[in-house]
């Protein structure tokens, strides 16, 4: 039953636009806003979800020629394009071979540059980001679901949200998916994220379909089960489909 | 402008979808320019009211929630909008059987509105309507909370938190309400719940590390982590098992050793000098015998030692220890048999070259199965020395290590002892803070048949303390006094008075009472009663032991008088209730008459004694008389009492003094 549901959701894979046109708004988060969160950003935006992405690290860190010589950049001030050009000039062969240039090439077509989660003010209108992929629907700058790609990032996000003191009084689901920081795993996880987004969105649409008093009054516990309540269930079902990507969930506040 | 057009268009009959489109356009406008917020929010209010179609209500409620929460607005603009939307918000919330999404967003909007509205009404208290609306919203939210579906409940919780926060003094600990937990079915659930709780608690801890709950939170977090480890580290445990399963290699090794060892006999050493290394070498392998363990790095050697010790079979160890012991015994025997001159040779041979290499020897045998030198040495350390001594006393004494004794603790010097007993005394007062007041209920029961300290409340504990102060060392002080010679010697040696436990507690009791003497006067009375009783016993016993009642009473009165004001009637009560009054004690009251405000208190207290305590009537009247004599200001009142209770006194005084001023006074008094 569950798996049937799941595969159906997976089959949709966000390619089709639902009749109601309702789309959950997503936010992907990894350490440097380069690999995992950007893969998620790309895939979710391709599936027509409003999406933004961030990194929780103190700086953008990319591998360098040796382990002790990483390439380090500042968040919010460096564009993917400039990083691309710098690395291309430094050692095109090396950075082509380790996939960095391909990654940056992808990223610079998604948005301008890596953004830091902690510096982002939730609810600041993002009308200046029209060219970003996944910007449509994200104008108000408040996502419904945050997907982090590593437990450390999840911790940082929750911590940060607690520190902010929830000025918007708005609940947000924060889900962690443990993804190894390499291109292959990021690619796989991107698909998994879209699968999760589809399942969540389906649940949200179902909940929204229960309009008005009739459903509210007449329904048993099941029909009153709401989207917020169903998120952990949906995630648990998703986990069964993606057992290699251990997940965690919490409800936090913006 | 946009707002106006939307507002007007709503009245005409256009489809909901078209309206939504227009509304979205309006929303985009405010997102782009916050200046439009005021007009657009106010403009859409008629469209999204409680009578509008559900789609519009949903859109409206969400738009209101978004607008009231937006960070781009300044407080003033926010107040404007908030006050304007309250009525609509109230309408949305009061719709019977309202749609969940509308409710959720409306409650969220109300949560944002509440602190702003509260702030606003503080500055505009004349405008009560807004506050009434906000109050109505609050009541409505509290009303729907219980029956609401989860998303609405979540918003309600947030709303309640906002209310609490808004109305809490800013310094107070932020009160957060945990979300209602759901039954953990899967790993995801458990992990999510655990992590959420842990993050939340650590956050609280970090925010207010000195909170009284901090210790418990810390404990809880640790317990949470442990239980999580228990639930999830099955993998870890499996790995441990795998490690052990991987250990068969080690096991095989160990087995080989075990089977090998019994066959390896430990040959007794031949005659002649042997190095210590030779004594402890058990292997027959020449190559291994020649191996210099000093080549091994210390950490590796340590690792090997530990592993060997852990894996060593007890039987093997016993065998090895026995073997070495035999060797040593035979050496001692040989040494004893040889002339005394031979001894240094043995010892020299053993120690001289090894003084440096000893450590190496410790490690050398590690490579061979049974010889764990450290273990053996330990065994030897612990072995009773009798055996070698029996065989060869001197050598044994030279070779064997005596049993280890802990150095005796440093002698307790009187200062430290005094300090410690002080600390002990202060601990006696520890429970007071936590203990409950016995309460008024208990008081009527108190009477002659009362059992002191029969329950664990503050009164009982105080009884225990007072008795500890008065009686615990009562007998001991006598003895001290009896041995006069020792005492003088002691005190001269120490050259400072030593405080007994009783005195230490008395001291603290005094401090405790003075901390809040107006309310603790009863304790003072109880204490003095105990002192008095104890003094009576001491007197009866004789022996000139020190008496405490008078000193304590004087000190307490002195202490209280420092802080006394005209309203402190407790003084009267205190003087009436303590078991014995003396002239010096009442004499303290005279000091009060120096201050005109407390004259009445002092004299009233004395009058009360005159009237209600006949045994002390005379001293009390004497005191009044002294006051009359000494304090000009207190004369009128003192004279009044004296006229009544000691007629003729003033006349005798005035006649005696034969002054010119006194008659005037007497006249004044007579009136």
TrEMBL record, chain A:
A single Gene Ontology CC term: mRNA cleavage and polyadenylation specificity factor complex
Annotated GO MF terms: RNA polymerase II CTD heptapeptide repeat phosphatase activity
Family: Belongs to the SSU72 phosphatase family.
Classification via Gene3D superfamilies: 3.40.50.2300
Record field: catalytic activity: O-phospho-L-seryl-[protein] + H2O = L-seryl-[protein] + phosphate; O-phospho-L-threonyl-[protein] + H2O = L-threonyl-[protein] + phosphate
Summary of subunit composition and partner proteins: Component of the cleavage and polyadenylation factor (CPF) complex.
Signal sequence interval, chain numbering: none
GO BP terms in the entry: mRNA 3'-end processing
Record's keyword terms, sorted: Hydrolase, mRNA processing, Nucleus, Protein phosphatase
Keyword Mitochondrion on entry: no
Pfam families from the UniProt entry: Ssu72 (PF04722)
Main function: Component of the cleavage and polyadenylation factor (CPF) complex, which plays a key role in polyadenylation-dependent pre-mRNA 3'-end formation and cooperates with cleavage factors including the CFIA complex and NAB4/CFIB. SSU72 is required for 3'-end formation of snoRNAs.
EC number: 3.1.3.16
Organism: Staphylotrichum longicolle
Entry keyword Nucleus: yes
Entry's localization field: Nucleus
Name of the coding gene: SSU72
Protein known as: RNA polymerase II subunit A C-terminal domain phosphatase SSU72
Automatic annotation (TrEMBL), chain B:
Compartments where located: Nucleus
Recorded superkingdom: Eukaryota
Pfam families: SYMPK_PTA1_N
Keyword Nucleus assigned: yes
Domain annotation Symplekin/Pta1 N-terminal: ranges: 99-174, 175-238
UniProt entry keywords in alphabetical sequence: mRNA processing, Nucleus
Keyword field contains Nucleus: yes
GO biological process, one term: mRNA processing
Cellular component, GO, one term: mRNA cleavage and polyadenylation specificity factor complex
Protein name: Symplekin/Pta1 N-terminal domain-containing protein
Organism encoding this protein: Staphylotrichum longicolle
């Amino acid at each position: 039953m569950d798996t049937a549901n799941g595969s159906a959701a997976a089959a949709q894979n966000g390619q089709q636009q639902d009749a109601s046109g309702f789309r959950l708004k997503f936010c992907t988060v990894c350490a440097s806003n380069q690999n995992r969160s950007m893969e998620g950003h790309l895939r979710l935006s391709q599936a027509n979800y409003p999406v933004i992405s961030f990194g929780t690290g103190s700086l953008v860190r990319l591998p360098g020629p040796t382990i002790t010589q990483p390439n380090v950049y500042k968040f919010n001030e460096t564009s993917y394009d400039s990083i691309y050009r710098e690395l291309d000039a430094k050692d095109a062969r090396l950075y082509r071979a380790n996939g960095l240039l391909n990654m940056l090439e992808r990223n610079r077509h998604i948005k301008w540059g890596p953004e830091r989660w902690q510096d982002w003010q939730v609810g600041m209108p993002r009308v200046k980001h029209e060219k970003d992929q996944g910007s449509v629907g994200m104008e108000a700058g408040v996502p419904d679901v945050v997907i982090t790609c590593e437990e450390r990032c999840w911790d940082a996000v929750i911590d940060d949200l607690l520190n902010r003191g929830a000025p918007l009084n708005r609940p947000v689901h924060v889900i962690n998916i443990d993804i190894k920081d390499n291109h292959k795993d990021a690619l796989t996880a991107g698909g998994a994220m879209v699968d999760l987004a589809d399942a969540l969105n389906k649940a949200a649409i179902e909940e929204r379909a229960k309009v008005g008093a009739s459903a509210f009054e007449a329904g048993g516990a099941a029909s009153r089960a709401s989207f917020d309540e169903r998120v952990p269930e949906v995630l648990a079902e998703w986990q069964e489909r993606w057992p290699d990507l251990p997940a965690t969930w919490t409800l936090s506040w913006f | 402008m946009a707002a106006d057009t939307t507002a007007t268009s709503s009245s005409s009959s256009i489809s909901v979808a078209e309206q939504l489109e227009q509304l979205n356009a309006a929303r985009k406008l405010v997102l782009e320019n916050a200046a439009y917020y005021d007009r657009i929010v106010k403009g859409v209010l008629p469209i999204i009211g409680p009578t509008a179609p559900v789609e519009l209500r949903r859109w409206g409620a969400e738009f209101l929630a978004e607008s009231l929460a937006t960070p781009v607005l300044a407080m003033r603009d926010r107040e404007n909008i908030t006050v304007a939307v309250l009525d609509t918000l109230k309408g949305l919330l009061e719709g019977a059987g309202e749609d969940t999404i509308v409710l959720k967003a409306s409650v969220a909007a109300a949560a944002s509105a509440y602190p702003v509205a509260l702030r606003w009404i503080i500055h505009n208290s004349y405008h009560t309507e807004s506050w009434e609306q906000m109050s109505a919203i609050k009541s409505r939210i509290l009303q729907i909370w219980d029956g609401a579906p989860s998303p609405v409940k979540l918003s309600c919780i947030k709303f309640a938190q906002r209310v609490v926060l808004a109305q809490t003094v800013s310094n107070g600990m932020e009160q957060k309400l945990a979300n209602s937990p759901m039954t953990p079915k899967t790993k995801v659930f458990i992990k999510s719940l655990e992590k959420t709780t842990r993050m939340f608690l650590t956050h609280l801890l970090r925010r207010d590390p000195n909170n009284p709950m901090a210790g418990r939170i810390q404990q809880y977090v640790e317990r949470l982590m442990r239980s999580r480890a228990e639930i999830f580290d099955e993998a870890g445990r499996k790995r441990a098992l795998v490690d052990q399963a991987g250990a068969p290699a080690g096991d095989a090794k160990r087995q080989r050793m075990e089977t090998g060892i019994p066959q390896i006999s430990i040959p007794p050493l031949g005659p002649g000098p042997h190095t210590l290394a030779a004594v402890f070498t058990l292997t027959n392998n020449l190559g291994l015998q020649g191996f210099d363990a000093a080549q091994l790095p210390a950490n590796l050697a340590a690792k090997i030692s530990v592993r060997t010790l852990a894996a060593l079979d007890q039987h093997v160890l016993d065998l090895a220890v026995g073997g070495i012991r035999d060797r040593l015994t035979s050496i001692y025997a040989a040494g004893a048999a040889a002339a005394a001159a031979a001894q240094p040779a043995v010892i020299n041979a053993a120690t001289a070259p090894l003084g440096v290499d000893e450590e190496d020897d410790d490690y050398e045998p590690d490579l061979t199965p049974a010889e764990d030198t450290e273990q053996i040495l330990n065994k030897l350390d612990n072995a009773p020395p009798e055996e070698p001594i029996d065989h060869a006393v001197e050598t044994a004494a030279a070779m064997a290590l005596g049993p280890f004794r802990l150095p005796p603790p440093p002698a307790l010097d009187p200062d430290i002892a005094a300090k410690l007993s002080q600390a002990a005394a202060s601990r006696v007062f520890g429970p007071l803070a936590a203990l409950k007041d016995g309460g008024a209920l208990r008081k009527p029961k108190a009477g002659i048949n009362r059992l002191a300290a029969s329950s664990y409340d503050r009164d009982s504990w105080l009884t225990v303390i007072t008795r500890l102060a008065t009686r615990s060392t009562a007998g001991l002080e006598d003895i001290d006094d009896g041995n006069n010679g020792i005492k003088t010697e002691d005190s001269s040696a120490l050259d400072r008075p030593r405080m007994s436990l009783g005195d230490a507690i008395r001291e603290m009791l005094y401090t405790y009472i003075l901390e809040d003497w107006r309310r603790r006067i009863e304790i003072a009375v109880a204490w003095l009663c105990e002192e008095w009783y104890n003094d009576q016993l001491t007197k009866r016993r004789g022996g000139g032991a020190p008496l405490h009642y008078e000193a304590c009473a004087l000190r307490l009165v002195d202490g209280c008088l420092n802080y006394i004001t005209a309203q402190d009637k407790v003084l009267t009560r205190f003087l009436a209730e303590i078991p014995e009054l003396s002239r010096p004690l009442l004499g303290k009251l005279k000091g009060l008459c120096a201050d005109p405000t407390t004259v009445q208190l002092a004299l009233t207290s004395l009058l009360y004694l005159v009237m209600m305590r006949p045994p002390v009537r005379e001293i009390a009247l004497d005191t009044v008389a002294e006051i009359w004599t000494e304090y000009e200001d207190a004369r009128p009142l003192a004279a009044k009492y004296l006229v009544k209770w000691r007629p003729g006194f003033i006349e005798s005084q005035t006649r005696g003094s034969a002054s010119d001023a006194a008659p005037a006074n007497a006249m004044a008094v007579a009136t």
